[in-house]
Amino acid sequence: MSVKIRLKRIGSNKKASYRIVVLDSTMSGKGRRVEDLGTYNPRAKEENQVLNLKKEAALEWMKKGAIPSETVQGILKKAGVKA
Question: What is the DSSP letter of 27?
C-alpha cells in the first residue's frame, strides 16, 4: 500500500480551507483517510490560525515512506518539518 500526504478541500464556495491528511494513493481525495495531520487555512486573518499541524505525526509518516504532494511539501518546509 502506497501512502500519500495531501490536502483535502473543505469549506464552502470561495471560502476554501484544507485538511492535511494521509491517504492510500489509490483512493481519491474524497476517499477514506488514514489519519488527519492538521489543517491549513490560507484565508485566515491571523498568522497563528493559518496552519495547525501535528509535526511529529507528519515526520513519522514520512519516515514510514509516505510521499507528500508538492503543496504539502512546501507547507511542511515552512512549518520546519524536515524529512
Answer: S
CATH of domain 3-79: 3.30.1320.10
* Residue 56: how many other CB atoms lie within 10 Å: 10
For residue 33 the three cell numbers come to: 483517510
Region of 18 (left: φ > 0; alpha: ψ -120 to 50; beta: rest) is beta
Pairing of strands 67-68, 51-53: unpaired
Return the residue matching grid coordinates 514510514. 64
Tens of pLDDT, residue by residue over 45-57, are 887 888 999 999 9
Question: Using CA atoms, how far apart are residues 66 and 82, in angstroms rounded to an integer?
Answer: 13
Strands 33-40 and 51-53: antiparallel
Is 19 in contact with 39 (CB distance < 8 Å)? yes
Q: State pTM to two decimals.
A: 0.85
45 grid coordinates: 486573518
